[in-house]
Write a structure and sequence with these properties.
129 residues, 71% helix, mainly alpha, 5 helices
Length: 129
């Protein structure tokens, strides 16, 4: 009976330590979202080429760590927490670089802005005399 109780406790403890594969999708979703934020920053000119390069390098590093964490077929809570912290830091970096005073002036940005700006345009009334 004692052996059975110990083995059940160990199995439950192991189940708590290992992260569910569904939660690992959260890491991948955040990585994809951050990639889109970087791309949008480049398109709008909020990020310079150098800033985008640094952010993309950081995203590659996170992806390498994600692949390394899944190399054994499971991700421990510690690995998951580490990746979560890295993504939080990367998100802060994206925000700070997108909102700093550096701006890349791009030809053709006004076309992008017109396409994605959904505010109603003011049109002066037409008067015919």
């Amino acid at each position: 009976m004692k052996k059975l109780l110990v083995s059940i406790t160990m199995a439950l403890g192991l189940g708590v330590i290992l992260v569910n594969p569904a939660t690992a999708g959260v890491v991948e979703d955040r990585r994809h979202n951050q990639k889109l934020r970087i791309r949008h920053g480049v398109i709008t000119g909020e990020l310079t080429r150098g800033e985008a390069r640094v952010l993309k390098k950081e995203q590659r590093r996170i992806h390498r760590k994600l692949k390394r964490a899944w190399a054994d077929g499971k991700m421990s809570r510690r690995e998951w927490r580490r990746l979560e912290n890295l993504q939080n830091r990367a998100s802060r970096h994206i925000y700070r670089l997108k909102h700093n005073s550096n701006y890349r002036h791009r030809a053709g940005y006004h076309r992008y802005q017109q396409k994605h700006d959904h505010r109603p345009r003011y049109r002066a009334p037409y008067y015919s005399y």
